[in-house]
Amino acid sequence: MNKNNIETVVPFAQPEQLYAAVDLGSNSFHMVVVRVSAGCVHIIGKVKQKVRLAAGLDENMMLDQASLERGWNCLRVFAERLQDIPLSNIKIVGTATLRLAKNADVFIAEAEKILNHKLNVIDGEEEARQIYLGVAYTSANQGNSLVIDIGGASTEVIVGNDMKPIHLVSMNMGCVTFKERFFSDGNITEQAFEKAIGYAKSLLAPVVDDFLNFNWQQCLGASGTPQAITEILVTQGISDSIRLDYLHNLKQQCIDCVSIEELEIEGLTEARRAIFPSGLAILIALFEQLHIQEMQISGGALREGLIYGMLDNMQQNDRRTQTLEQIIERFHIEAEHANRVKNLALALFKQVQKQLELTKVDCEPMLIAASMLSELGMHIEYKQHHKHGAYILSYLPMVGYTQQQVQGIKALVQSHRQEIQLSTFESFHPDVRHALHILTRILRLACILSIRRKDHLLAQFDLKVNEQEWVLTFPGTWLKSHPLIDAELANEKWQQHKVGWKLECF
Predict the structure, then answer these.
(1) Among 387, 390, 381, 373, which Cα is nearest to 330's?
(2) In this structure, are strands 144-150 and 218-221 parallel, antiparallel, or unpaired?
(3) CA–CA separation, 14 vs 37, rounded Å?
(4) What letter would DSSP give residue 88?
(5) How far apart are CA 130 and CA 419, in angstroms?
(6) Which of 96-100, 284-288, 427-431 is predicted with the least confidence, judged by mean pLDDT?
(7) Is the backbone of residue 162 left (phi > 0), alpha (psi -120 to 50) or beta?
C-alpha cells in the first residue's frame, strides 16, 4: 500500500446481504444480525436472553420442563427476526448443555419447528475452533494468542496464530454448572471459592503442560466473565487489562458480601450477579494454572466466528487497517494527511525506541491509530477537535483493537494538542500510563512538524531522549527559516514544561 494513500477495500459480498448467527449457550441465547455492504460487515441487530439452560440439568443429565420452556420462548422471539433473512445466510448452533442433555432431542425438535431452520449441536472442539475464528476476525494479529471463553457449562481454551487455531480443548466447567455445584445455597464463602478453584485446577491439570509449551504473545478473553470483570474495572476507574491481583480483590469483595442475594460490586450488572462468583473462580484457576500475566477482551467470540465462516470469500484484510479506513472515510478525514502524521510519528517513535524501554506495552498500534485519527473531531468543529475526537471514539466500534488499546487511542487523540491534562492517564496501569505519556509527546511533535500539510516541506530531524529531557535537532538553520514551526515548538516547549516534561529544540 502506498504510504500516502488509503487502499480501497475490495467488496467480498453482494451489497446489502443480511446474515444471522444464533448461539444457544448454556447460560444465554444470543442472536446477531449483520449487513454486508461494499466489503464491510455492519452489526444491525443483537438479541441476548438469559435462558440458564444448564441450570435445568438434573443429576441424570435431563433438562427439566421449565428450562425447555425458557429456551423455546426465547427462540420464538428470535424466529420473527430470522424471517427476514435468507435461510442460506443463517447458522444456528447449540453448545455444551445440548451436548450433555440426554433429552436434547426433545428440545431440538421443537426448536427447529419454531425457527424453521436446522439446529446443529457442535462438539467442544468445533465450538473452540469457531470461538477462536470469531476472536481472530475481530482482534489484531500479535503472534501466538491464547484465547479463553468461559461459558455456562463449558470452558474453551485455544492457542492460535492469525486465523489458524493450533491447539484447543473444551472442558466441562462453566459458570452455571459451577454455581449449581459450589454456590447452590447462595452463600459466598472462602471455602466455596477454594473448592471451586481447586476443582477447576484439577480439570485443567491434564492439559496445562500442553498450553505452557506454547509461547503466546497475548491472552484474550471472549465475552462472559472476562467482559463482566472489564466492565467492573472500567466503572471503578481502572483502565487496565485483567490481572490476577484484580481477580483476588474481586474474590474478596464477593466474600465480603456474604451471599449472592447481597452481592453488590460497582460495575457488576444484575444479570451477571448470580453466576459471577463461579465464573470468577474458574478464571482465577486459569490464570494461576496457565501463568497468565494479563488478559485483554476480544471483540468477538462464537457468534462472530459463525458469521465470518459464512463469508468464506471474505478478503483477509488486516482488521485494524480496515477499521481505520472505514473511520477515515465515514468522518471525511483527509487520508493523505492522516498518513503523513502517522509516518512522522513512527519516525519519531523509532528514534525513541532505541533510547527508552518500551517493551512492556504494545505501543505502535495505538500510535498509528491516534495519528491517523487525530483530526477525527474536525467532523464536528475545529477549535476543540481533540476533545470531539475523543468523544467520538468513546462510541465507535474499533475492530482489531482491545478495549485497553481503544482507551489509549482515545487518550492520545484527546491529548494531541493544546494543554496537556495528566489526569487523562490516571486510570491506566503505571506501565501503560508511562507509555502513553511518551506516545503523547511523539504525537504532539508529529502534528506540529506536519502543520504545513505538504510532504516536501517536512524536515529532517534527530531526537535524543531520556526520561527527563527530549532534544529535537534540525539541520543547519532549518528551524530559523521556518518561523511558524519554530513558534509552535516554542509553545509546545511551554506546554510540556507545565506538566514537568522538558523539551529543547535547535
Answers:
(1) 373
(2) parallel
(3) 7
(4) G
(5) 46
(6) 427-431
(7) left
- Centre a 10 Å sphere on the Cβ of residue 427 and count the other Cβ atoms it contains: 17
Label residue 72 exposed, middle or buried (CB < 10 Å: 0-12, 13-18, 19+): middle
Q: How far apart are the C-alpha atoms of 356 and 371, rounded to whole Å?
A: 20
Tell me 422's DSSP state: G
Write out the DSSP string of 35-58. Answer: EEETTEEEEEEEEEEE--GGGGB-
State residue 38's pLDDT score: 65
C-alpha cell at 275: 453466576
Domains in the chain (CATH in brackets) are 17-122 (3.30.420.40), 125-304 (3.30.420.150), 319-459 (1.10.3210.10)
- Within the chain, what is the greatest distance between any pair of CA atoms? 85
Contact 99, 124 (CB under 8 A): yes
Share of the chain residues as helix, strand and coil, in percent rounded to the nearest 5:
50, 15, 35
Outline where DSSP puts E strands in 51-175: 90-94, 120-121, 144-150, 155-161, 164-171
Radius of gyration of the chain (CA): 25
Contact 29, 51 (CB under 8 A): yes
pLDDT tens sequence across 444-492: 999 999 999 988 888 889 999 987 799 999 999 999 999 999 999 999 9
Mean predicted confidence (pLDDT) in 398-414: 89
| Cα-based distances in Å from 67 to 178, 185, 327, 372 | 17, 20, 43, 50
- Rank 33-42, 217-226, 307-316, 374-383 by mean pLDDT and report only the highest: 374-383
- With beta carbons less than 8 A apart as the criterion, state whether 175 and 96 touch: no
Burial of 357-395, coded b for 16+ CB within 10 Å and e otherwise, reads ebeebbbebbbbbbbbbbbbbbeeeeeebbebbbbbbee
Nearest to 110 by CA among 24, 177, 26, 33: 24
CA distance 78 to 73: 9
C-alpha cell at 16: 446489502
Ordered strands of the 120-121 beta sheet: 40-50, 28-37, 17-24, 90-94, 120-121
* Residue pointed to by grid coordinates 514551526: 485
Number of Cβ atoms within 10 Å of the Cβ of 47:
15
> In this structure, which amino acid lies at residue 215?
N
Report the DSSP beta bridge partners of residue 17: 36
Please report, as a single letter, which amino acid is at residue 217.
Answer: Q
pTM across the whole model: 0.73
At a CB cut-off of 8 Å and minimum separation 6, what does 60 contact?
A: 102
Can you read off the three cell numbers belonging to residue 491?
509553545
Helix (H, G, I), strand (E, B) or coil at 217: coil
Residue range 152-159: average pLDDT? 93
461 with 434: CB under 8 angstroms? no
